[in-house]
């Protein structure tokens, strides 16, 4: 028997927002009948805000729970906020999922991504960044593409074929694609290592400073805060955080996390943010 | 809290008569049966007695042809490895696509070791393709292994006919029958069947887990799987598990006496459950043929809804059943058995096995008949396949 969290149990017993929305502004689908689970998500969007969300799921307990909680997570949020939701956020909201069931949260993420892709105003950032590899099907049993595997590795830091199977189902049936999955993992980490090492120290400083200026500061200023880059020493980035948030310890912790994650994603995953007074 | 246990193909409750027969061998007659003093005699006699009970259970020629093992998987491994090790020149073996994983995974291993393995197909009723069997057996075939009854579907294979086909193609070919799911449900008669080896597991017929038996025909030499002492005539080393052996002997006697009840009363309750679910739930379909099945098992597919979700909701009302579908087992692929039967993808992920026992009551069956339709109804409401469901509803009404 699965060791499901209270929250998962509560959600598969009493799923929220079941059904479809007539005249939905966006509909997203992930999975298929043959693969054993499918999620359809319907969104009503007004003034860039998700005003209603409903779902229909063919799948196990954690698939229903993931879908149900996802609708709760997105109702009332702006499109920009919804875009930031990852499969890990869904799993976290459920109080965790067994490793073998992580693919259910991935399905939620994929259905949401699909819905937003179908929504007129949406621009696929990943496509712009050209980070996606291809729609080539790697796992023929479950119809999992190279892109989906790449995304799962990227968003969840997956390192082994078994982990990829748990998150995407790829390789879970006949197992013939395990070699190919291994290759994707290797390519991903090789690419990541190259990207990091290809920056000279001067380029790195420039990039950090640019990201702080254009992405982070802009975001903080919205809330009346601000950030100044003080120094860079190896992987350590010293910053001064000020404004509305300084003084509130919790807010500052979140803030530091946000700064660090943004820099990690954009520049180097080894970056450590140190706050100075 | 209500508990309706309909997963007896997974394991069974230990019969209280079995348990009380076992108890003296823990604290009183705990001697090692191989010891020389009088104190150990009751242990060695008890084993002899249990061997006699197993001989009767199998209708074997002689007690000497019974080997006690630790269960079904060990019986199968001992039989298959034991036969193949006797003549390493023969490199061909035959089995079916629907065997239990303990056999299938062993065959996968054998393929890695250079054996050629043929897997016989079944049709959509679950019946074995005997023509294919006739075609593949040849001069090099060392062993054919088939199950007596399938754990997921309950379908019974025609062992006598299989033996006749195999032996007519190659007299030397040995036949192992995995009878784990037949034991206690239908009569087992190794002499009439003409098989060379046959294995069972105690916990499927109200003995405890961790004990099993293997019948080996005297004309079938095998090497032991576990090497060590002289126990079980050198065919299975290790001090005998006296209380469990005693327990299985008693359980075998009770099971043999209970076969009539299985064939009538257990079958009646199974049929009542099956008929009612198929009639009252529009997306339900029987995954097998109606005949040629053990009396306690039914496997029903619920189209466009998923099996684990059904089981979780059944569990919430105290009903225990099982599914061969992806999500329950940890494996992601749907049941290899239902795939071999070509159960459509619309139903394969929503297939539920109910397996009854002598302890199942009419009241329990009525309870399931009452609880099941509203659960399925609720889950149909969550499915994204509303149009398809609507279409089968119209077809059925």
Could you give a short description of this structure?
The complex is a heterodimer of chains A (277) and B (397). Chain A has 277 residues and is an alpha+beta fold.
Describe the model.
The complex is a heterodimer of chains A (277) and B (397). Chain A is of the alpha+beta class. Chain A has eleven helices and eight strands. In chain A, the strands form three sheets. Chain A has a three-stranded antiparallel beta sheet. In chain A, strand 6 (225-233) and strand 7 form a beta hairpin. Chain A is globular. The termini of chain A are far apart. The mean pLDDT of chain A is 84. Chain B is α/β, with parallel strands linked by helices and 397 residues long. Chain B folds into two domains: 16-257, Type I PLP-dependent aspartate aminotransferase-like (Major domain) (Aspartate Aminotransferase, domain 2); 260-396, Aspartate Aminotransferase, domain 1 (Alpha-Beta Complex), CATH 3.90.1150. Chain B has 16 helices and twelve strands. Chain B has helices at 16-22, 24-27, 41-58, 72-86, 101-112, 130-136, 159-169, 190-193, 242-257, 259-280, 307-316, 326-329, 336-340, 345-348, 362-382, 386-396; strands at 4-5, 66-69, 92-96, 116-120, 141-147, 174-178, 197-201, 212-216, 284-286, 297-302, 319-320, 351-355. In chain B, the strands form three sheets. In chain B, strands 2-8-7-6-5-3-4 form a seven-stranded mixed beta sheet, sandwiched between helices. A three-stranded antiparallel beta sheet of chain B has the order 9-10-12. Chain B has a two-stranded parallel ribbon with strand order 1-11. In chain B, helix 1 (16-22) runs antiparallel to helix 9 (242-257).
